[in-house]
Structure formats: C-alpha cells, structure tokens
Amino acid sequence: MYSKEEASKLRQQFWITFGKYLKPIPSAEGLTINWINYKTGVKNVFFKMDAGQYKTVISINIQHQDATIREQFYDQFLALKNIFNDALNEEWEWEVNAVNEYG
Questions:
Q1: Torsion of CA 20, 56, 45, 81, to 10 degrees
Q2: Which one, out of 4, 36, 48, 96, has a CA that is 20 to 30 A from the CA of 15?
Q3: Can you tell me the distance from the alpha carbon of 41 to that of 46, in angstroms, rounded to the nearest whole number?
Q4: Hey, where are the domains in the chain?
C-alpha cells in the first residue's frame, strides 16, 4: 500500500510519461496536440482521462446544463456506437447519466 504522497507521485509520473509518449502523435490535421487535455472544439463536450488506484478511464463527457441538449448529444454519440467499437476493436461502456465524485 502506498502513502498518499507516494500515490500522488506515482500518478504524476504516470501522466508525465503518458504525455511524453503521446507528444509525437499529431492530430488528424498534422498539428501538435495536447492529448491529455484534448479540446474537442464543441462547447460542453470533453475528453477526460483519469488514472485511479484500481483502473484508468478515458471518457467522453457531455456537461451541458440543459438535460434535453445533453440527451441529444448522447443520442448522436450513441448513433456512432458501432463505428467506435469497430475502430477500437472493443466494446465501450455507455452511461447516459454518469456522475463522478464532483457530481
């Protein structure tokens, strides 16, 4: 078991190493991009990465205040479910109203 300080240092080292690994990978347009804090260009839609003690999660978060608009975004992503699965050769977990420790 790691102390809080040791765990914090390990997480920090993970993100530093991960960032260095992804740094040479250009965007579709050939531009340098910060993959860890990827800006989607769509207001209230975020790509998030979280490395916890027991798992690592990469997610697409729709954080619009209006539930109807959030649902419309979700439905649009859901329509692409087969494309995502085929591109990554894996099944994704889909949660329509997921919340994290911040709500």
A1: 110
A2: 96
A3: 9
A4: 4-88
